[in-house]
Structures are given as C-alpha cells and as structure tokens.
Specification:
The complex is a heterodimer of chains A (315) and B (295). With 315 residues, chain A is mostly helical. Chain A is built from 13 helices and 2 strands, in the order αββαααααααααααα. In chain A, strands 1-2 form a two-stranded antiparallel ribbon. In chain A, α3 packs antiparallel against α10 and α10 runs antiparallel to α13. The radius of gyration of chain A is 25 Å and the shape is globular. Chain B is mostly helical and 295 residues long. In chain B, α3 crosses α7, α8 runs antiparallel to α9 and α12 runs antiparallel to α13. The chains are: A mainly alpha (315), B mainly alpha (295). The interface between A and B is large, with 104 and 102 residues. Chain B: It holds the Pfam family BPD_transp_1.
C-alpha cells in the first residue's frame, strides 16, 4: 500500500524563501496535524511499545510488571499446548477460508459483474453479511447448527434421512463450520473488489483474443487471470490478515463453559486465546506476547504483499 | 439461445444467492414466532401465528417465573432506563461521534500532509501507512490499561477517544485529496484565505464523495464493534448493542424459550445497518473499489 508515496515535487516554494520562512509557514500545518498525531501517538504508538514491554514481563494488571526476559515467548512457543492448538487451528482455518472465499468471490464477480438490475440485486444480497452485525449473524448460525432436531441444518439432513448431528459439541465439526460461516460472510466483499478489477480490464484485450480465436476458457486463463493479479493479491492478503484476526465467531458460537476456545479448544485461535489469557485469566504479559506473535505473522504477510505488488508493478 | 445457456449456467449461482438469505430469513421469521412454534419438529418455515411477544410479552409478570413465559425484549433489563432502546442509543451515539470526530481529525491531517509544504511530511505519511499493518488487537491490553488509568472504563470517552486515530482514513483521504488541483489552494492563498479556511471552505466540499465513503465504513464498523466494548463495558447501562446481544445470549444460552427474544434483538441490531447500507450503497461500493484497487 505504500507504493502510492511517489508524489509531484511541491512547487509551492516562492523564489528566495529561506528555510526559516518555510518552517514559519508550516506552523498552521503542524497545528492541523496535531489532533491526529496526538491520538495516533497516544492510542497506537505508545500502546504498541507498551505491549512490547509487557511481553517481556510478568504482569497481572494490578501489581507493577516484573521483567522476565524471554520467558513468556519461551513458554508460548515451546511449552504451551493450548497455543500450539490455537496456532494450528488458525493456520487450517485461514488457509481454507482464504482459498474458498477468494474462489467464490471470483466466481461471483464473473457471474454478476454486469449493470442489469438482476446483477445489482444479487451483488447486494451477497454483500449483505458484510454489513450485518457479526454478533447477530453468529447468533443465527448458532441456532441453525443447533444440535436439536429443530435446528435448520439437522432439518435439512433429515430430508435425506440422516440422523441429527450435534454440530456445536463435536470438536471435528468446529473448524469446518467456522469456514462455512466465514465464506458466507466474506465472499461478497471480495466480489465487489473483483468486479471493479474486472471492469478495469481493457476490452481491446478480449477483442484481440477473440480475433485470434481464443475460447472463453482461454480468454479467462490468458487475459482475465493475469490482468486480475494485483486485485487477487489484494483480496488474498487482506483475507489472510482478516482471517488471522477472527474472534467473534469463536466467542459467540463455540464458547464453552470454562474457556473461549470451544469444546476441547477445537475453535481456539490466536485472538480468542489472546482474549482468554488477557481478559479472563488476566495474564497481561503473556497476552502481550501472544499479541506480538500475531503482529509478527501479519507483518510477514504484509511484507510479502509489498514484495509481490512491487514485483507486479515492475512487470 | 446463447443467452438462455448463460442463464442456465448462472442458475446455481442464483440458488446460492437465495441460500445466502436463509440465515436472515430464519432470524426474521423466528423473531415473530410464538415460543412453541420455535422448537417444533420439523420446524415451521412460515410463522403460522405471527406474534410480537418476543418484543413485548403481555403475559409476562416479573413475580411469576413460569416455564413458557419469558420477558419480551423491551421488558428485559428492568434496572436499565430505556432497556434495549438504551443500548441502541449507546451504539448510535458512539458510532456517530466517532465518525464525525475521526473524519474531521483525519481530514485535517490529510490536508496538512497533501496541500501544505511541511518539512518531514513524507516521513509522517510513511509512519501512518506502516501502522496500517499493525493488527489493532496488539494495542488491546495497553489501551485497556490507559483507559482504566484515565478512569474512562464504562464511559463514552472510553468508547470514543481511543477509536479516533484511524490511519486507514487518513491514507484514503490523502489518496483522494491528491486528485484535487493544488491551483485551487494556491488561488485561495493568494486571495488571502487562511489554511483552516481553505481546508473547510475549498477542500472539504470537494472531498464529499470520499468523506461519504469513509463515513459509511466507520459508522458500520463502529455500530458492529464488539471486542473493545466487551472489554471496557462493566455494567449493562453502558453496553452497546453487540455487547448486550452477547450477554443476552450468554445468560440464556440453552433455553430455547429465549431464542425468539435473541432473534428479535438480532433483527433490531442488523436492520438499521442493512437499511443504512441499502440507502448509501453507491458510496460504499465506490469506497471499497477505491481502497481495493489502490492496493
């Protein structure tokens, strides 16, 4: 996203204006920047540094933090089976969600890219979950996958003569259900981005392709997909980042009695674990170590994104 | 002929579109079903005997705790003035305040960064953009402690102030503001207008589409915001709608009698956002497209 930094050199400099005059003229500018800069420093930069400090301390929020060095990270990465569960769950969930959501979004965008009223209505329908309160949506899912026979999912099963499944209390169903909910909730957003990407592809490319006798499938493979590369990268990367941050779905649909991770931690992921450690067990230092681990994962993904977009721009 | 074939290929997608709506339909119909119908097997797809009991149960008597009678949504929270409406009011007020204030703050910053010759502005902008890759949950614990030390837990400032620094909004507005010709600003300067005046009278009116797109983004995100309110809200009075909803769910998790009430509350939570989205759809999709393509 930083690639837009190149800008026109400023031509505002009148001849003979000295350095001091430039600074004096800049004063109102800094005043205008001040409210944002203050909030940015106070509630983003300072907390970020604080989180880094807490990650190296034992801290329960009441007593002052005591320095423990790398102990939190050592415990987290080498000794904590719950963290390992959470990380593995996150990786499985993220890879399934992103693949399926991106594929669905692209298919939908190809089908409903037009301007007819039907296309617009369908686009709106697919987009609705993105604007609806996640909590409300998750409560609906919770009911649809209710283990009782009046649950909608079990009703559909019964049409085919199958026995009811206790979806929410069977650990191996947790991740698949979370993926279904995520694809349902996320495909519309990707679709909108793909539609604008598709509409930006010059029509001449297709005309040339048709003249050369390319079939619809060939046009898709050799024109559409390559042209969509930057958009696809964007959808995939934002999808990855968003999926690593999932919280509400686990917290609302699968909250078990004693922890936020669902039955046998089958839905435990990074942010739910961070919440559990920080705000139900009040191990704030440990929670900060989890937070920084999340940061590092997302940082690496963002770096890959920068690399890829830069490489794409140089093509 | 080929058109017919095209429509046939798209048929599964139309069906997928219909199934997309099933959860919404299920919620809306459940909110109007009488309690016995909720747990009927097989379930009823059309409420046979629509009722508003989930919102207001006429037979409910706080003294009597009969099995079949649960308090309607608006009869819950006897100790919260206004009950569920209070939560909707909280959500609305917080979302509106954050939207107006954060857009003003961000637009001021964006103006200074694009239209003024500030030493160091490039560095500042790089820092703002770089901060966008920080998952905000990293600042969760320290921000909680800051807000606690300021004694802002359970208060509107606790909701609003930490949410005002939105790097993404600055980034978006800077991108858009660059397309506004510098000559307009220079002309205003030559005419003797001060920077604030130029910002407010010349640039801001031209920024309307970008501001609208961002406003819709922020309103929806804040109305639906959950994790931060969950942490800072301590008593029911200050809950926003998602927090109230999750508490409603937690306290009645396995009582099917309460499902209608939970669905009624879900309906009242999502309906405003859906209407809002439908009304401003054009701005919204344009905002997504602009931010998405610039990636």
């Amino acid at each position: 996203m930083t690639t837009a930094l190149i800008e026109k050199p400023s031509t505002a400099q009148p001849a003979g204006a000295g350095k001091r005059a430039r600074w004096r003229r800049a004063v109102p500018g800094y005043v205008m920047l001040l409210p944002f800069a203050g909030l940015f420093a106070g509630f983003l930069v300072w907390p970020l540094l604080n989180a880094l400090y807490f990650a190296f301390t034992d801290f329960n929020g009441v007593r002052p933090p005591s320095w423990v060095g790398l102990e939190n990270f050592r415990r987290l990465w080498f000794e904590d089976p719950r963290f390992r569960t959470g990380l593995v769950n996150s990786l499985i969930y993220v890879s399934c969600t992103v693949t399926l959501t991106t594929a669905a979004a692209l298919a939908l965008a190809l089908a409903f890219r037009g301007t007819s009223w039907r296309d617009r209505v369908l686009r709106t329908i697919f987009f609705l979950p993105s604007v609806t309160s996640t909590i409300a949506v998750m409560l609906i899912w919770r009911w649809i996958f209710s283990g009782e026979r009046f649950g909608l999912a079990n009703t559909v099963l019964s049409w085919f003569g199958a026995d009811p499944v206790s979806w929410l209390s069977t650990p191996h169903w947790t991740i698949p259900l979370l993926v279904v909910m995520a694809v349902w909730g996320g495909c519309g957003y990707g679709m909108v981005i793909f539609v604008s990407g598709l509409n930006a592809i010059p029509e001449e490319l297709y005309e040339a392709g048709r003249l050369d006798g390319a079939s619809a499938w060939q046009q898709f493979c050799y024109i559409t997909l390559p042209q969509l590369k930057p958009v696809t990268t964007y959808v995939v990367i934002t999808g990855l980042i968003g999926a690593f941050q999932v919280f509400e779905a686990v917290y609302i649909v699968f909250r078990a009695v004693s922890s936020v991770g669902g039955v046998q931690d089958s839905g435990l992921m990074l942010v739910p674990y961070l919440y559990d450690m920080g705000f139900t067990k009040f191990q704030l230092g440990y929670a900060s170590a989890i937070a920084w681990t999340l940061f590092l994962i997302i940082f690496v993904i963002s770096m890959i994104q920068l690399r890829v977009t830069r490489a794409l721009r140089e093509l | 002929m080929t058109r017919l074939k095209g429509e046939l290929i798209r048929l599964p997608l139309y069906l997928a579109g219909l199934t997309m709506l099933v959860p919404f339909y299920w919620m809306a119909s459940a909110a109007f079903k009488p309690v016995p119908e909720l747990t009927r097997n097989p379930p009823s797809f059309v409420p046979g005997d629509p009722t508003l009991d989930a919102f207001h149960e006429p037979a409910w008597d706080p003294g009597v705790r009969a099995d079949q009678v649960v308090a309607g949504l608006f009869q819950r929270y006897p100790d919260v003035p206004g009950g569920f409406l209070r939560f909707m009011g909280n959500s609305l007020f917080v979302a509106a305040a954050i939207t107006v204030l954060s857009l003003l703050v961000a637009a001021l910053a964006a103006y200074a960064l694009t239209k003024m010759d500030l030493p160091g502005r490039r560095v500042i902008f790089v820092v703002v953009v770089a901060s966008m890759m920080i998952p905000w949950q990293v600042t969760l614990v320290p921000n909680y402690l800051i807000v606690r030390n300021l004694e802002w837990l359970n208060s509107y400032p606790g909701y609003i102030v930490p949410a005002l620094a939105k790097a993404f909004v600055v980034f978006f507005l800077v991108q858009y503001m660059r397309s506004i010709p510098d000559d307009l600003v220079h002309a205003a300067r030559v005419d003797g207008a001060g920077e604030f005046r130029i910002w407010w009278r010349v640039v801001m009116p031209l920024m309307r589409p970008a501001l609208a797109a961002m406003a819709i983004f922020v309103v929806l995100a804040e109305w639906n915001n959950f994790l931060w309110p969950l942490i800072i809200v301590q008593d029911d009075t200050m809950a926003n709608v998602p927090v109230a909803l999750s508490r409603l769910n937690a306290s009645n998790a396995f009582n099917p009698n309460n499902m209608a009430v939970i669905m009624a509350a879900s309906l009242l939570t999502s309906l405003p956002t859906v209407i809002f989205f439908l009304a401003f759809q054009k701005h919204f999709t344009r905002g997504i497209a602009l931010s998405g393509i610039k990636g």
